[in-house]
Design goal:
Length: about 280
Amino acid sequence: MTWFLPRTGAGQPDPRRPSSGDEAASAPRLVSVSQFSDPLVTSPVDPSRHPSQATAYWLQRDIVRGVFRPWERLKVERLSQFYGVGLSPVREAILILSTSGLLVHEHLKGYRVAPTSLADHADLADIYQRLYRLALGMAFERGDDAWEEQVVVQLHRSQRVRKVLPDGDPERREMWQIAYISLHGALLEGCRSPILLDQFASVGARLERYINLYADLESDRHRDHHAEHRAIVDALMDRDAKRLHQLLDSFFMTTTPVHDSIRAALGALNRGEAR
């Protein structure tokens, strides 16, 4: 399996090999989620009371967003300075994320950000769709009135958030991504399977990282996600299985250009490294 580093993008360094600690410390950074101020995108827990959980949230989102690059070494001292927390919360945060698939451990060397590859992306994209369909099908069967109400509330909240692409304001972009994640999480919550939901969230975060690192989202610029979400929720509330399957097929089909661009970017990096 061949692993890759991200292509150059807006605000993105141009690494061509795994980053050393010194190189990572001096490279320009994207804006950390820990610097955002809107309650919608700050840590879901109070950092002063739960510093480990807050740091784990910041680190997870920053890895997914590309603040920390594939193969970058995660040194406890530097993360402590970066997030303004003690060494112990950083160590605990890394342990919390150690099974997330976003980190890899090197014997006697500590942790790095997980690398990326064509095969890994293909596997994640396939499993994401399969898990989504399974969870939504179970929600269709098991969802109760309380779940329906929560879905409608989350849909309403998401409709108030404007879609922002990576060339827009970073905090507004994060607000859109969190609103998107929260709505789909609410939809699938009706499956009533913590194991399935946990697996889906993990795969979803890892796949989102590929989109943030490598995707050309120009094909997504004029896509009406709000209308698509409303239609899916309506079909689910109406218990219209045929319509729901049709909408899901269309929903995933429209993401094809995005994933094609990811594969193209990874392929170009592969060819560049081969020369």
